[in-house]
Amino acid sequence: MDEGNMESQLDLYGPELLNSINCTGLPPYKFILKVDVLVMLLRNIDQSSGLYNGTRLQVRKLENYVIECEVLTGNNVGHIALISRMNMVPTNETVPVRFQRRQFSIIVSFAMTINKSQ
Questions:
Q1: What is the pLDDT of residues 78-92, one digit of tens each?
Q2: Fewest CB atoms within 10 A around its CB: which of 1, 8, 86, 115?
Q3: 113 within a domain of the structure (yes/no)
Q4: 56 alpha-carbon distance from chain centroid
């Protein structure tokens, strides 16, 4: 590809379009966290410390480049974990371009209880 053609291709996929893409295994481009909210890990970070995909955590402190969380599930319940930003590349093949985001690998965790009456 020559340089002029590459620039026109990049103009087709602007930041607004790339930020609007939601793929599985990738958190939304922008979401709001608060202290005490429950979150879930999307990537294996440190399996020996119990930080693997699906681990539930509770946010204790929010900083610009790191989130301090308390582990709620697994063998390390009660331990403090520091979650930093990491490069995440979507593996969805329906996305026409390959890109990466540098963000926290967590999403807000929701729980649902079902009471069955008879």
A1: 999 999 888 877 776
A2: 115
A3: no
A4: 13
Backbone Cα Rg of the chain: 18
Range of the domain at 12: 3-108
Q: Is 8 a member of any domain?
A: yes
Phi/psi of residue 59, nearest 5 degrees? -70, 130
Instruction: Count up the domains in the chain and report the number.
Output: 1
Residue with tokens 């990537």: 43
* Whether 101 contacts 88, CB under 8 Å: yes
112: phi then psi, degrees, rounded to nearest 5: -135, 135
Checking phi first, is residue 54 left (phi over 0); if not, alpha (psi -120 to 50) or beta?
left
d(CA 57, CA 46): 14
Tell me whether residue 116 is in a domain.
no
The answer to the question of residue 97 being in a domain is yes
pTM of the model: 0.69
* Tokens of residue 8, six digits: 């026109």
